[in-house]
Amino acid sequence: MPAERSESLAAVLDAIRGHQGITQPMLIQRVGWGRSVIAARITELESAGLVVTAGVGPSTGGRAPRQLRLRAEAGVVVGIGIGATRMAIGIANLAGQLIHRAEERIDVADGPDAVLGHAEAVVDRILPDRRAVWGIGVGVPGPVEFATGLPVAPPIMPGWDGYPVRDRFARHYDAPTWVDNEVNLLALGEVRTNPAAAAARDLVFVKIGTGIGAGLISGGRLHRGHNGCAGDIGHVVAAETEGVICRCGNSGCLEAVAGGAAIAREGRWLAETGGSPLMAEMLAATGAIRAADVTNAAYRGDPGARALLARAGRLVGATLATLVSFYNPGLVVVGGEVARAGDYVLAAIRESVYRRSLPLATRTLRIEPSTLGEAAGLTGAVHLVVDELFAPARLARWLPYSSPAGQPDLATVEADDPAA
Amino acid sequence: MPAERSESLAAVLDAIRGHQGITQPMLIQRVGWGRSVIAARITELESAGLVVTAGVGPSTGGRAPRQLRLRAEAGVVVGIGIGATRMAIGIANLAGQLIHRAEERIDVADGPDAVLGHAEAVVDRILPDRRAVWGIGVGVPGPVEFATGLPVAPPIMPGWDGYPVRDRFARHYDAPTWVDNEVNLLALGEVRTNPAAAAARDLVFVKIGTGIGAGLISGGRLHRGHNGCAGDIGHVVAAETEGVICRCGNSGCLEAVAGGAAIAREGRWLAETGGSPLMAEMLAATGAIRAADVTNAAYRGDPGARALLARAGRLVGATLATLVSFYNPGLVVVGGEVARAGDYVLAAIRESVYRRSLPLATRTLRIEPSTLGEAAGLTGAVHLVVDELFAPARLARWLPYSSPAGQPDLATVEADDPAA
DNA sequence: GAACTTTTGCCGGTTACCGGAGGAACGCGC
DNA sequence: GCGCGTTCCTCCGGTAACCGGCAAAAGTTC
Lengths: 420, 420
Description:
homodimer, alpha/beta, 5-stranded mixed β-sheet, 17 helices, 15 strands, 44% helix, DNA-binding, ROK family transcriptional regulator (chains A, B)
């Protein structure tokens, strides 16, 4: 397996993946190899069924060049996003576009065997031929040792510590599997689908959901940290937080004062004490106040709810200001249920960060809401998979030297090494 | 210039640089290329004068292999570390070992022309033939746009904003020049000279001097941030800091309560109010209290000084705890004058971090003093230079294809591109 | 429809890498 | 000190891969 070949192969495929409809001359210029090499690689990729011609491009005076695109429908990858009470399952094509989605109610405390068995059952229902799966990406709400695919001491996933999530799926589907922290996948998904995020080589993705976490991109690559728990900012000490006890047992945690659970709790308190007639109605109707109810009330003009969200934003912003000075990202992306609900949180975050961070660090900084929608976690998971599938080392095995012109046996190549 | 050749060339040179006395068979195994290629690259490097034979290694039964080493004396690089009141200037060989050092008193507020002219005069005195300089590394106490070598809005360097430091040296010495933030160079120097730091792929170097700053390593590479100011934690908001005004104009900055200036200020207050007879003596003798006097007093058993340093350590540790949770480094290295003085600060930092950070992030975390001595900044600067000099792209230009067996003209090759 | 431009396949030339063969250097045992 | 086995190292032929000229095919423009 000559190293150069797989390198140029991956370079060509990457360029086609990144620029649908790219032409051969453009590839020559972009990839920087000679014409014959590019042409040979394209032929290889076409005979493997990974690339097809997609019409002809605009002519610049002579013959119009043919446009190439990834044959995204050549295979499917599975993304699984595990949450505390819900699990998202998606099937995507090789371009990372979701073509099927399912959402299941689970209890993560039921343990990995029950939850992952449930996930397998759902995938098997959507995708009867399990041999069609090219790869699997799993996001979990806790730290993961990425190299081995083992969760490490996840605080909100009792019974999952050290469970071989990766090996289980790799064996069951005979397909390579990668497991990562959910927030890392959000960051990755943002970078892969939002050009502005890709352009900012250093990025922080902040998720404000029930908990609070961050995903870090350094120089275009995920920074996972030494134990795989980088970005775990839910339990750092926040400002003005006297006496609030967090689910982790400590007091003063950011999550305990600005997370979704805290917002719901304070919303309920407002509803009960007459601080918000709107939320009092909601409480009466459903018997509970969720974070979504607070954002809903804020949208409908409730001053108490707006103040509550603004306070949460300020608290997150205060911590984020320190992190921005420290990390100096070019872009901060804010996602998660709470942030998705409106501008009240975002505006407060912006104000805090711009006020408290080093001026130079905020000179070109932008703080934007995530462009990903509901399926954000799945998007990241499937992009992780296709990125890894099309990495040079793995590609070399699919398209072995001097491969026959026919379709290489894509369904079985993964077997020799479940997930390296 | 074939890409492969320069790649294998750099790989061989890197291996020799990293393992002095490596043998040809070891290189074959380590670099992973065939015998003939390795032998050819060694011949090339020898004819260029970069590598020489250094005796023969132990025989394992047959002919003993010859050992290779970098001919570090083949050239010299210059390191310049600019501080607020002092400037360190060093000459190092190609292995990054300092062979000359000078320290000059300056005032950085005199502006770049005066300071850099002074630096050039000192270098010219030590090194009469300026053509002998292979490269120059400059550390400055403020943010730098690394790609262009321009300081950007450095708070404590009036008049330096946008001054072409790199181009000035590159022109004057006709040698490639790199400029970086001083703290980044400390981190780099630590990684290059301390095997434990190199092993921890994610590292934070915290410098506590007059100011406070950090250098970040992500996956073995410097994380400089989007504006080159990553690690600038001197002006984040610290805990328990009501009303203290910082030199930056804000209040509550970490630097204003735990930096060297703050320690000196509080030491003086202790001396004046009778809180420390020892420091009162010092004050009477010299008319001032510096941070070094406080650490000195702490060493000699002064409880007030010890408490003062412990408080500073706790404050740094509190911020660091957030950063450790966020960044999840494998190692935190503490350096700078204040930290170098003793264990009082370090112990307090350790206690704060271990108490407040996420348990998983501290499970394997070590917090250690820097192994670099006085010349820490210079060490980083010269290592930056040799790293860049021996990077594949630059190496390819030195040893052009089919170079004559004689010495290539190393003194002039840099001219075509001062510092890319 | 003709001239021109551009794409694209083909092919020889060149470069670089690999590993076998044999000479050279070394340690060991007698 | 001398042969023998072992290992290092160099030379050299074979092979893989890349480059770019050439010409045919496929368009565009006039």
